[in-house]
Amino acid sequence: MISFTDDLAITLSLTIAGQVYKIPASDVRSLDLDLHPYGFNGKISFLVTVEGTTDKLFTPITTKNDLIELSLQVVSYVKHSETTSIPLILRGLVTTSSFTEQTLTNVLPSQTLMLYRHYHLSFADPAQVLWKQHYPCDLLTDSTLQALITAHASTKIDLTYDWDILQIQHPVLALSLGAEGNQASFYDFLLWLVDSQNGSFTYDLGANQYSLTASKSQAGTAKSLNAFEIAQFGIDFPEVLRYQANVLNAYSESPTITAISNEQMATPIRRDYIARYPISADMQARVDLETARFKQCKHEVWVEYQKFQLEVTPPNQIVNFLGSSAWNTSLFNQDKTYRVRKWNLRARWTKQGDVSGYSCYEIEHSIRLESSMELKVDLPSYKLPVYPFFVEGKIVSEQGEETDASYQFYTDEDTSINYYQISIPLWSNKKVRAAYQPNFDGGQFYFPPYKDARVLVGLGFKSAVISEFLDWGSGTALPMDSQGNQLVMGKSTTSHNIIKHTYVDSKPKLEIQRTEEKDTELLQFSVGYIILQTQTEE
Fold it and tell me: pTM value?
């Protein structure tokens, strides 16, 4: 990386518990910045003089845990009055802080005078700082992704939406981020959602605002890069995707394999996406999604500077290599338009500047550009959220009397698919849908779970399934001495059928009993006899 010296005014202010602390530009000793389309990370160090005065930062930083808001501006020295500059301005939140102390005891053992403290702060954009510590478990029913995300947006995170899939209502939406084994934060979840659903997540540095959109914005006026500020640049071409993408539907009643076109494929290399799609529209939606997600990336341009940008071009800014005769017309990138993808700065104080408010820094400064037509969304690496996670629920049935152990399935009006309703006590008895299917029973058995049966529910991101049954039904358990088994079928203790196997004197006994109010029929098999009995109580 090429380094150079330049005069910069780096002004910093910190807000702690409503109190603003301003750091003079002459006291800033170092600055590291990495800016991306989705946010930024930075480190800054500065001196606070203690000799003969009070360090007002010392108490709030060392004794309080208040959120520290940071406002930073970086601008290059303008030598001519007719020349304008565009500074870099950003606002973030401090993550960690440290300091060293310089006293006269380091020089003269007889003196204990404090001279200054050298503070070091790490900071980032608000979404990274707050959402990387956010690990919620949550459940929404008949709601939208926008409502889910908004429910977890801090007042420090300004978020706008322009993405149709965020407005679609889903029967179930669940967050698993507090589940055992999960390492993904809410920030990871959001990145995974954007990546998996082919959306875009961007951060506007100047407005301190995030956007969730269906695709990258193509808006913006191109700004010409200054040829005299640039030391060198080069072109990088990415690896070409050689696989054949296929979407596989493993649903036995309609198995299909749909290929996604790739002119650069190398047979037999492929990437398969497999799942079960009983509803044909869901299969087509997955094909459309994977078709849109498949993108061959375009070339990129890296640029190293020999002077700090007079007009800063932050991430998402559209730029070109026009506007000056200093740009050779034979350059590969001369007639192309680009978008800033990365913006990096390393600055180390060397001396006080010749002009008040400026200091001289040893600097490394670079940007990375992508084609303005690039469709691939730049996102940081993230951890996958873990699904499903498990909670307890109770089966819902509106059939019969309140006390009846009835069962009921419901039918989706749009798909005609049947499903259970399960009440989740943890979340105020919200009702989730689970597939109406045999679960662990074979197809020859038909035993839908009865009302209020305790079940373990596996919550997926947008689905739920009955994972286990957690309790014996009312009246089904037998004494251990009987070593028995029984099958109880019916609505109540006064209306049911029972098949019971027990041991009496170490010999098996089998009973089949029907009960309806006071009327009882019994068929019993024991050693040496068969009993057939019908009885009506008075």
Answer: 0.91
